[in-house]
Amino acid sequence: MDPTDKPPFSLDASVRGDTATIRLTGEVDLFTGSELSAVLDDLVSRGDVHTVVVDMREVTFLDSTGLRILLAAHQAEGYDLAVVQGSRAVVKAFEVTGLDRVLRFVEP
Fold first, then answer.
1. CB 79: neighbour CB atoms within 10 A?
2. Mean pLDDT, to the nearest integer, of 10-24?
3. What's the CATH number for 6-101?
4. What is the pTM of this model?
């Protein structure tokens, strides 16, 4: 696949009360993971966010970079991380790595 043919990546973050929601679209990988990591850091540094929900329903691909970012967010102090699972490929990535038994998954 030509890199110019990659599905677009987008990230939309919103805060309501003490809960932040990050909606991801496209591929979460080495090239896009830094954006997710930066947004997580920004949300947590606010001090008023206690729960972060990462909505992965529109994610088409998740590599080890994205998995590492989610695991680090899960292990971070000061907030609770929840994940809304997406496609079968994303679910399989969680299952193969065992993160399906570590992370907290929620319904949308």
1. 19
2. 97
3. 3.30.750.24
4. 0.91
